[in-house]
Design brief:
- The structure is a single chain.
- By secondary structure, the protein is mainly α.
- Helix content is 60%, strand content 3%.
- The chain contains eight helices and two strands, in the order ββαααααααα.
- It has helices at residues 44-71, 77-90, 101-127, 137-140, 145-155, 159-169, 175-182, 186-206; strands at residues 16-18, 21-23.
- It has a two-stranded antiparallel ribbon.
- Helix 1 packs across helix 3.
- The longest helix has 28 residues, at 44-71.
- It is globular.
- The two termini are 38 Å apart.
Length: 208
């Protein structure tokens, strides 16, 4: 899915639907002003969700694609991120707070990439062949030069170690945030990072 193809549309309204009644009362002072040509019968909560989703897409899409590439999504990175935004959109009202949306998005991206890797591993075992993932030019362009130099080494790490390392040093997250994204304890995060750094250092050293 291209960056401009959002899985939702912009919707604005001045009215609020409560049961079978439609209220045309003025919006609260802290509610953004809405255009005059709004559609009647739209819940203002949905308007707020769509506005927040658009801001998240504009502010985090490139970062999420980069994360997906580094985690091993390769040519599927754009699709993984698009699916993650769709999941967030459908579960928006289950969030503890709108501020947790970006963290939830990271968690979904990690889970989707992990599922993709597992499916590939199963397919390769059944096919009895070893396929080298080919990163698309668009996905590769999302990486900085220094990141491209270690991508091959990262691919050799176990999935959990790669996730912990990428979230720590490329996303600059704290251990608690990494634990939330990966669904593990902070102690496990420290262990994964330590092992990953040891393995990565050896791998990088052998290529010089």
């Amino acid at each position: 899915m291209r960056e401009t193809e959002k899985p939702w549309r912009r919707t604005d309204a001045r009215t609020t639907v409560i049961g079978d009644q439609t209220s045309t009362a003025p919006a609260p002072a802290d509610t953004p002003a809405l255009p005059a040509d709004t559609e009647p019968g739209v819940d203002l909560r949905d308007v707020e969700r769509e506005t927040a989703m658009i801001r998240l897409f504009d502010g985090h899409h490139a970062q999420m694609v980069r994360l997906a590439v580094l985690l091993g999504a390769d040519q599927d990175a754009e699709d993984v991120v698009a699916e993650a935004f769709c999941v967030l959109h459908s579960r928006w009202y289950r969030l503890r707070a709108p501020e947790s949306a970006a963290a939830y998005l990271r968690s979904v991206v990690c889970n989707l990439v992990r599922m993709r890797i597992r499916r590939l591993q199963v397919s390769r075992r059944h096919a009895d062949v070893q396929l080298d993932p080919i990163a698309s030019a668009e996905s590769t362009a999302m990486l900085h030069e220094d990141q491209r130099q270690v991508v091959d080494a990262l691919k050799g790490l176990p999935t959990r170690q790669r996730e912990a390392l990428v979230l720590r040093y490329w996303m600059d997250l704290k251990e608690r945030e990494i634990a939330d994204a990966m669904g593990i304890s902070t102690g496990a995060v420290k262990s994964h990072i330590s092992r990953a750094m040891h393995t990565l250092s050896r791998a990088m050293g052998s290529t010089r």
